[in-house]
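Reading a protein record of the kind used here takes little practice once its layout is understood. The fold follows as a row of integers, each naming the local backbone shape at the matching residue. With these conventions in mind, the following record can be read line by line:

_____
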Amino acid sequence: MLVAAFQVGRIAPSFGPGAGATDIGWATSTDGGNTWTHGSLPGLTVGEGSGPYDAASDPEVAYDAKHGVWMIASLPIASTQIPAVMVSRSTDGVTWQNPVSVDATAENSDKNWIVCDTWASSPYYGNCYVEWDNPDAGDQILMSTSSDGGMTWGAALNTANLAGGLGGQPLVQPNGNVVVPIGLDSGEMAAFSSSNGGASWTATVAITQVQVHNDAGGIRSGPLPTAAIDGAGTVWVMWEDCRFRANCATNDLVYSTSADGVTWSAVTRVPVDDVSTAVDHFIPGLGIDPATSGAGAHVGIHFYEYAQSNCTQATCLLSVNFISSANGGSTWNAPVSLTGPMLVTWLPQSQNGLMVGDYIATAFTNGVPHGVFAVATALSGTTFNEAMYTGQGLTVTAAGRQYSSANDKPLHKLSDRIERERPEKGVRPPARRSARKSAK
């Protein structure tokens, strides 16, 4: 079964301090992505009609194999004090219950993510973990754990060093250890972990300093991590980065791997094209077939790109592509184009730029990679035409000429200034702001 989640009815920033979406949509396929059933999550937003919140954002999907439950975590948005994260549950991927709260008294929250321990041999099999950060406390990272199928969630816990960061994506290894790659506010890609089922979390360890070219055209993007784990527990983290490009003029997709979340490999470039091209690559969605590992790991990446990095909002041509490796990244197949180019002016505006989403996905079912990504067409008057799609007929079998970046070397330590994201929840309600001042 495939389950996807996404924003529905993006709200323009002029309509509220946090914007977000009218609701979170879901789509479920039981036939390998050929046909889909879809709808909107109940009990979440006023716009959907049965929920209390003004809007919602940042949806992610997890499956709890022990309890047989699908979960969609999302960020509730309202002008009053609200939970950090809401988790909607379903036993069939079609009928969704009203959501339950994670950290009901949270000060603020952004960039949530969810994962469940699906390894039957793990001592913490069936635990699920939610990550988010608190923008009101310097993006301080927080984690919460559930052991009952997402019905209740434990206290929010910090990392041991009270680190601040964005976009953490927890992954569970076969031994039950949880590794969370994340981008730190310092500009480093880093990771932290738990070896006791989420009872405590280590300090962050640095992977590398991010080097990034800010993507043109006013598009909402940046070096947020995408992460995946292979069948033996090796963790991959990937992001957009310019270190292999002269003068930091465009981004590649780069990655690092680790067996324990502490020691990480050198940063490696995905050879989508030659480093002399002007193509810009960003917003990757990384996936690894869980039935494969090591030198035989099947890796798939969906990503967006501009054919020409140095473009303007009027000229930038945006497309979605796919690239794969059948041997753990030693060599790569030629990239596959999944969409014709679209104009960025066809995209809805967010508080951080024109938007196709902060994340996309690659998930494997029966060895076949499936992506979920947004594609826009020209507006109908003032009505946006943007929908969620998946590719068909993609494989990870090595075929034709193979490409490698084994001889590539970083060229510099240049980077554009990493843009500070404005949180979806926007301005904190005045009553809470005053209470915090009086407590100082």
